[in-house]
Structure prediction request, 1085 residues.
Amino acid sequence: MTSHIFAMPDDQLPALLPSRFAAWFAERGWRPHAHQLAMLAAARDGRSALLIAPTGGGKTLSGFLPSLVELAAAPYEGLHTLYISPLKALAVDIHRNLEAPIAELGLPIRAETRTGDTPASKRQRQRESPPQMQLTTPESLALMLSYKDASSVFGSLRRVVIDELHALAGSKRGDLLALGMARLSALAPQARRVGLSATVAWPDELAPFLAPGGKGVSRIIGAAGPPPEVAILATDAHLPWAGHMALHAVDEIYQAIKAHKTTLVFVNTRAQAELAFHELWRLNDDNLPIALHHGSLAVEQRRKVEGAMAAGRLRAVVATSSLDLGVDWAAVDLVIQLGAPKGVSRLVQRIGRANHRLDEPSRALLVPSNRFEVLECRAAVAAIKSGALDGERPRPGGLDVLAQHITGMACAEPFAADALYAEVTSAAPYHDLTRADFDEVLRFVATGGYALGSYERWHRLFRDSLGRYQIVSDKAAQRYRMNIGTIVEAAMLRVRVRRGAALGEVEEYFAQGLRAGDTFVFAGQLLRFEGIHDMEVMVSRVGGAEAPKVPAYAGGRLPLTTYLADGVRAIFADPSGWGDLPAAVSEWLRLQRWRSVLPARDDLLVETFPRGKLHYLIAYCFEGRNAHQTLGMLLTRRMERAGLDPLGFVATDYVLAVWSLKPAEDVDALLDEDMLGDDLESWMAESSMLKRTFRNVAVIAGLIERKHPGAHKTGKQVTFSSDLIYDVLRRHEPDHILLRATRADAATGLTGVRRLGDMLARVRGRITLRALDRVSPLAVPILLEIGREQVSGSAIDTMIDEAAAALIEEATGVPPQSHLPL
Amino acid sequence: MPDDPTIMAATTVALRLNGAALVADPSGALFWPEQRTLIVADLHLEKGSSFARHGALLPPYDTAASLAMLADALRRHGAQRIICLGDSFHDASAHERLGSAETTLLASLVAAHDWIWIAGNHDPAPPVGLGGMVTDALTLGPLLFRHVAVDGAAAGELSGHFHPTATVALRAGRLVARCFVADARRIILPAFGTFTGGLDVFEPAIARLFPNGFRIHVLGRGRVVSMPPERVVPTSTRGTSRTADRPIRLGQIRPAPRAPRRG
Prediction:
């Protein structure tokens, strides 16, 4: 496929942009961007289009412009343009922005949103009299496609616009959307598709998302602005050895906020957001309007912050990925990334939220929270300078999502298996789906798909006289519709001020650890826990400045990308570049080179040393936390078999540390690739990470329902029961389609098995072992993480064993897991 | 010490109740060596197919799994007698849905043991056709067997019904596990059945039966672990509307009320 940066000669302008539109642009002092005209040209030629452009530059308007022009020329009966956004809030904002040109140009267009928040009466009206433009989400699209009138509602469709395509492709929501699009092409073959995407590492993978094989899709590249100016905070404060909160730099961050008009402070976790916000307000003597935004806050609270931001009333917002996507805020002139960026592409997108005018560079400040993160930030800045991007390629579509889609299609109208298979494989993520897998998923939807075949009497789909499948009852269809979607949340509890408003939600797990009187920070407020009533966390507001707890959330932590990890290794390998590192960091690296050795670029450095009564093994893998967690589980199993009495491990994005009663000597054998065989299999049997993955798969596929007519089931109940189902299924039908889907997810998801496997293969025969007499400088940060790390899924696996370890401790006086006052 | 057999090799926990020496088995069964009697609670056989009838197509292997585990426990302990403490069948027609292999296995187990079915709320009338003795409660020496613990019962009561689970606080975090709940007067057994949910031991329905506190013995991976009291913590779900009669059930799907029979 060829890429073009379209430069449209002025004389072609009138042909593409009708005069009333040209006048409208001129009134605002705007000139249409080249890529906006290119989009019009593609529409004129009846082609679909993929627009890849940095944030800003009127990307969303580009998506709508051809529809506006077409509808201005000739009024239209029925649904003309469907806009799909990954965020409900974005759909609402875009709708607001769309109303301006429609009103000002006096266009005969009704544009309406249709999301989970749309009241039933409005939905009903929309079905009877569809607006010309509808703005929706992948989930609402799936719902609309499951109704019997889908073919008449969507039959008139001319254009589909998918916003933030890069954020959807490769995810399960993207799978759901791709399947919905495949159905749309059957219902409305005439409709053209438009995808809007940020700059990504794999643009070629996006075009097939719009049309099978990417055929008939014009690829349009928006002009890039000047390169961003990215600096790393050169802190005056002591640079911490470990931790992720970067609180040492809060004063400097505050000064940066003061020196700019509007600052977006991005953090990686909700806990970081709460803490940073709390600390900023402690310094905020000038009473600057600084707000907080993350995904667990009450929706009204988030909307209020977004509104204040749009109106230019805020000087700063501390936010998680909840603000990675969204409408442009022109006033933002500084983006601060607090803590490690974890990936180049994500950092670039975050930085792109500053200075939306294309002629000025975005400005960003990176604030590493520990020494390793200094290196990571350096690697990220180098990558941005060289224009490199990272990120996983979209993986094949999930079989659980396919099961959900098949159920929905059976609700809409009877289908023949052959036809649906052809339709499904026209969706990019399912292009390589085999007929055997499709049939197996179909069998699962129809009867549960068990080899035993004992449920023939209670199937969910039945076959009519023509052999077509359809849903067994209206009630079954209702249950499907109540459970559409691919986002399975951890069990959450609402937080409410006594006799007051709900502030948002915390994970049930966190609430379980609270005792009456405990204080914690949430929604930017210091709260005292009173108790739990009717599944709500009751709190009261308190003053004071004690050291409060901060709710932690299991999700949302992205592992370090392979690309950045490689960049960090490159810094180790090249001492000539250490000159401009902060003195504390270059000194640290020099000390490491003197006391041990630095990790080489392609080798795996393993250090062992005694400390107290324990022996430590440190592996500098740089493969991300998830892969390290899995390696820790597998390694401790092997060490146990080797009689080394391992007692625990801790993993960060960079390093794995394992400690045991006896020293590990044959490290090559311990780290042999074959640990991914039997050890992995037996670990998978028990791993709570696998069970969590299975739960998500089972919920998405419809085996377990989140919602049931007339009853609400909390996520916690789902967790408990799905574990039992996992155990039984694994024992009796290890190749069941849901277990296959679980393993596929686990390989790339929480367990990082694929990355681990790649690494073990790569370092075979290249393991450098340093047996030291004491802790090395590079190992200090990981030892400081011991006992500080949040509980991870895999740690829970070891807990019962740990109870036994506690007994050992009583018996022998050897602490199984010591805290290290370094 | 790792090689101390009393710590590492023990998979069971010895309990005493009203003078009887009992062994808590990691399967969730309780064994009474002196009487060669195995005691299990809440098998909930055919729970999977009960859900399937209502549209949730759970794996149909729960009965086979529960019976295999039961056969294994009987064999390991060399039991001659078995007492099922009620809710052995998930619903009134469950025994009609038993697969042929499961029917055969159950029949051979019943034939080989002195079998006692105690009635539960799910199976107020356990199927008599399967053999064994059916009763509401049973006294055997110093022990009393019934489905639901009774306030003020004499010492030596063994019961099920509640599917007790405990949240255990460990350094690495919290863990929810099935457990035996015990004091000097009574023991409540965990649910033995494969798909059964659980009720936290601090829920009033259970806690009120142990006014002087309880000891918790959780079912771990292949072993029973007695938990020091300070490690057992309440879950957050206290004070909710869950009641003793309705331990958490998968999906909370309940059979539709049966139409009154005409005739």
